[in-house]
Design brief:
226 residues; binds adenosine-5'-triphosphate; binds zinc ion; alpha/beta; elongated; five-stranded mixed beta sheet
């Protein structure tokens, strides 16, 4: 329809660690969204932009499947999803529009406090609980370490205590959660921040015009916050 050709469609996290910063960024760029967070689709009042609120895990696929024009997601989720989609034979093309100045976190290996740890080589033969098996495998393969991943999408940090795994590989910000579970952070596998990605395809001219208007505003707002 006319509408999908003329309104720039952006997927953002519905509710989570990227949501507040993303909404603040849009607001500071003059994109007015009044609909509440329970609306899957919100229309900007003053610009031809539609916001799609979804789980962060779905964002790379929505861009790669050309369902939305842009998406904001952590690089961790973007890279993990890309590797999974490659295995599944799904399209993986996208372009990075710009890196954003929020959503910083690291994907780290943590082991029980009492374990003596020197390097990633000490993980040889381990069972490691993680939400990011592909990122973990990429790194450990590089180091020549073989391991078995235990896929958990939540409560990763309780896996060792529960006897499900010998170590974990999880997102860390302060380390408080690890500490509370008798774990210590021993190595960083991947450092991540939020990125704005777009479909790898020319936009309709009307949409390109909106993109050309918004990109300098986004850059301006981020520069002002540095
Ligand atoms: P959803 O319900 O959308 O699937 P989620 O629970 O998978 O949410 P969040 O915990 O909200 O995801 O994190 C979203 C993203 O925010 C992470 O993938 C990561 O890129 C980033 N992030 C920033 N800081 C942190 C942090 N301290 N801990 C975890 N993730 C963080
Ligand atoms: Zn998620």
């Amino acid at each position: 329809t006319c509408d999908t050709q003329k309104r720039l469609r952006i997927a953002i996290q519905k509710s989570g660690r990227l949501t507040d910063d993303t909404e603040k960024l849009f607001k500071n760029c003059g994109i007015k969204i009044n609909e509440s967070r329970d609306h899957l689709l919100a229309h900007a009042e003053n610009l031809p932009i539609d916001i799609l609120r979804v789980r962060d895990d779905d964002i790379p696929g929505l861009v790669m499947d050309h369902v939305v024009d842009w998406g904001i997601v952590g690089q961790n989720v973007l890279e993990e999803t890309t590797m999974q989609r490659e295995v599944d034979g799904l399209p993986v093309a996208y372009k990075e529009v710009m890196k954003l100045n929020y959503g910083d976190c690291r994907l780290s290996v943590a082991v029980p406090n009492e374990m003596e740890y020197k390097s990633l080589k000490d993980l040889e033969g381990f069972k490691i609980a993680t939400t990011y098996p592909f990122l973990l495998k990429r790194k450990l393969k590089e180091m020549g370490v073989s391991f078995k991943s235990v896929l958990l999408t939540g409560s990763v940090e309780v896996a060792p205590r529960a006897g499900l795994a010998d170590a974990i590989c999880d997102l860390v910000c302060t380390g408080a959660t690890l500490h509370a579970n008798g774990l210590k952070e021993v190595d960083v596998i991947y450092e991540s921040k939020a990125v704005l990605i777009g479909r790898d395809q020319e936009l309709f001219p009307e949409k390109q015009a909106i993109a050309d208007l918004i990109i300098p505003r986004l850059k301006g707002v981020m520069a002002a916050r540095e």
